[in-house]
Amino acid sequence: MATTRTDPLTLEVVDLIGTVVARYHDEYEEVAARYGLTGAQARVLGLLSLEPTAMRRIAQKLKCEPSNVTGIIDRLEARGLVERRPDPDDRRVKIAAATEKGRDTARQLRDSLRFAREPLAELSAQERGVLRDLLKRMLGESPD
Superkingdom of this entry's organism (predicted)? Predict the structure, then answer.
């Protein structure tokens, strides 16, 4: 059984992680609004800019109901940012894919997010590597 740590250092680290997450979400919502998107729409567009994805898989990644994803995709599609395609392996499955306009918008969104990038730029490559490895370890992933 895992031990719950309540020492002052652990509590401080947990609080700092919470602050980082809150600031990141605040900036993400603010930047998304500049492009007339909600935070959820921006997250879906960001995912789809990396690779076309089945609607059900998007819902799993975002930890939400598939019907929510359908509504988000509808709104993004109406703006010409994404399109639906049949899955070449299973025509019953719908794949959502970013259009060229959608990929451009997603890139602009990513480029506008400064909160984490600017402080990270002040860290050395070694420090960023250590931070990456520690975060992966916290998530149960193995470092590269």
Answer: Bacteria
Closest CA to 98 of 86, 113, 80, 114: 80
pLDDT in tens, 84-98: 999 888 888 889 999
Is residue 22 in a domain? no
Could you read off the pLDDT of 49-101 as tens digits, one per residue? Answer: 999 999 889 999 999 898 999 999 999 999 999 999 998 888 888 899 999 99
Contact predicate 49/41, CB 8 Å: no
R_g (Cα) of the chain, nearest Å: 18
Range of the domain at 138: 114-144
Query: Do 67 and 137 belong together in one domain?
Result: no
